[in-house]
UniProtKB/TrEMBL annotation:
NCBIfam families in UniProt: portal_HK97
Domain of life: Bacteria
Record's protein name: Phage portal protein, HK97 family
Stretch list, region Disordered: 410-440
A UniProt-annotated Pfam family: Phage_portal
Compositional bias segments (type: Acidic residues): 416-427
Length: 553
């Protein structure tokens, strides 16, 4: 390369790096309109890439996930914590009505797809109410050019408005801008452009297979010999064969000149690994687009199974959805919110809820440790609060009493007749009102809470032994023997009367039969179902046992 060529090459690179738009001497202006040619010879652009089903599925899956997440604006409190700001102007824009013709779902889906396919999502801020915009009008990225003011470093958005049919210049404060991975800090890069050749190979393969099916899904035919008057006659016959044997005319009989032999090539798309190549190509495009293959229905082999799909969904929430959430939250913070004490929040709680048994077990743990109240849990489940504010009380695991009562316990009132010299009174101080039937509901609940720790101990012993039996696929006789001894042990621990002991024995027999059914299941997925059953026991049985224990005193 000569010295002059090196200088111009450096100028072109500098102009492209410093500005968000292509420089005057950039190759962009000399390339075909509507994309770039890949090594496979196929022109690739965001529009042509949408011919690939995997691209549509990835962009749709990612955009729909962002579009459905609840959006709130919160404010930091001086003493710590935060609170939701109801009816905030920005909340109205993102969660209620971004403009006069789009729903929040439409708006978020559209802008997120623009980011995935073109690297940038733009919306013009229109109107002004106390400093906040009244509407966010989306701008197509292909009609926006970003320039940088050299002295200040501020951005100017040059928008070719299709409604006014003219260019408009918008300053930085007039645009809401989402951007993907950026090299210059001003504009994001299109994943389609960065992954040019993988998309080109996929489009070329799809084009070849489409033509193959158009030609009756047959490989090439070779004609040899034949008496033709001249080359023109031969060309006419070839064109006639093409028109009469493909498309809607496929399957019709053909006529060959005298002396011509017809043979079909033996290579098929399966032999040339086109189908297997498509699977690999689809997985590669999923990687470029930032989506897990199993989410959009692509068979990823044994990597994603029924037993592991929950963990894959958690990985997706952490590695795919969370980065998009951060992109949106920080763009809202920068372009829409005015107060630094306010921040936006897209809640991912709905994606992490899991199955009912796991979710309810988590709620029980949160309530027992005092960091969620029953009303907090009911709100997460879209239920109304408990009447009279009873659900706002926070409890603690020790005895599940209100925190205020634990910090300053009430002194017991002297019982009537304490000064009497009744020699028949029990030495442990338990009076006649210790009978559960004579207890008021509050005292009964306190007794149940005190019995809960022993009940949890019993259930932990049971679930630990059940997991061992599942691992070794124990016989039905071993299961029955364990539950017989386990029922007797519970009766001894709680000093149960005969009636309640019989109820405990019956419950243990039922669980023994359920476990035996799981162990007898020959299905490969029996382990997952058995583990879910064990988790349900761990989550629900301690409270039931504590209640029975109080009744059986």
């Amino acid at each position: 390369m000569s010295l002059i060529e090196s200088m111009f090459s450096g100028m072109r690179m500098l102009a492209s790096d410093v500005s968000g738009s292509a420089g005057a001497y950039d190759d962009f202006w000399y390339e075909p309109i509507g994309g770039r040619n890949s090594a496979a010879g196929i022109r690739v652009s965001p529009e042509t890439s949408k011919k690939l089903g995997v691209v549509i599925a990835c962009a749709s899956s990612r955009g729909k996930t962002i579009a459905m997440l609840p959006f709130k604006v919160r404010r930091d409190l001086r003493g710590g914590g935060s609170k939701v700001i109801a009816n905030h102007p920005v909340w109205r824009l993102i969660a209620k009505r971004p403009n006069s013709f789009q729903t929040p779902y439409d708006f978020r889906l559209m802008l997120n797809a623009h980011v995935d396919l073109r690297g940038n999502g733009y919306a013009e801020k229109v109107g002004n109410v106390q400093g906040y915009p009244e509407q966010l009008l989306p701008m197509h990225p292909d009609r926006v050019r970003v320039d940088v003011i050299p002295k200040t470093g501020r951005l100017i958005y040059i928008y070719n408005d299709p409604l006014l049919n003219k260019e408009r210049r918008l300053v930085q404060e007039e645009v809401f801008h989402l951007r993907d991975w950026s090299d210059n800090g001003y504009t994001g890069q299109s994943r389609i452009t960065m992954g040019l050749d993988p998309f080109g190979v996929a489009l070329a393969r799809q084009d070849y297979m489409s033509r193959w099916f158009k030609n009756d899904a047959r490989t090439g035919i070779v004609f040899a010999g034949g008496d033709f008057k001249d080359d023109e006659a031969k060309e006419k016959w070839v064109e006639k064969m093409r028109a009469g044997g493909t498309g809607a005319n496929r399957g019709r009989p053909m006529w060959t000149p005298k002396g011509m032999t017809v043979s079909q090539m033996g290579v098929t798309p399966v032999d040339s690994q086109l189908i297997e190549g498509k699977k690999v190509s689809d997985q590669e495009i999923c990687s470029i687009m930032g989506e897990y293959p199993h989410v959009i229905g692509i068979d990823a082999g044994k990597a994603a199974t029924y037993a592991s799909v929950e963990q894959f969904n958690i990985m997706r929430a952490q590695n795919v959805v969370h980065p998009m959430v951060i992109m949106w939250e920080q763009a809202v913070q920068r372009d829409l919110l005015l107060d630094d004490a306010e921040y936006s929040h897209l809640s991912m709680a709905a994606l992490m809820r899991g199955d009912n048994a796991t979710r309810f077990a988590g709620y029980a743990t949160a309530i027992e440790h005092g960091w969620l109240s029953p009303d907090d849990v009911r709100e997460l489940e879209d239920l109304n609060p408990i009447a009279d504010g009873a659900g706002k009380v926070y409890w603690r695991l020790a005895a599940l009493l209100p925190l205020k009562q634990i910090e300053a316990p009430a002194k017991p009132e002297p019982a009537a007749g304490d000064e009497s010299d009744d020699d028949d009174a029990p030495e442990d101080g338990a009076g006649g009102d210790s009978d559960p039937k004579a207890m008021n509901p509050t005292k009964r609940a306190q007794f149940e809470m005190l019995a809960l720790s022993q009940a949890e101990r019993c259930v932990r012993r049971e679930t630990a032994e059940v997991r061992k039996m599942i691992d070794r696929r124990a016989a039905g006789s071993e299961v029955a023997e364990f539950y017989t001894k386990h029922a007797a042990w519970i009766a001894e621990i709680f000093h149960l009367n005969a009636k309640i002991s019989l109820e405990v024995r019956s419950a243990c027999d039922d669980r023994g039969q359920q476990l035996a059914m799981h162990l007898a299941d020959e299905d490969d997925e029996f382990l997952a179902a058995a583990q879910v059953w064990v988790e349900q026991i761990a989550a629900t049985e301690p409270r039931k046992l504590a209640k029975l224990a109080v009744e059986g005193i």
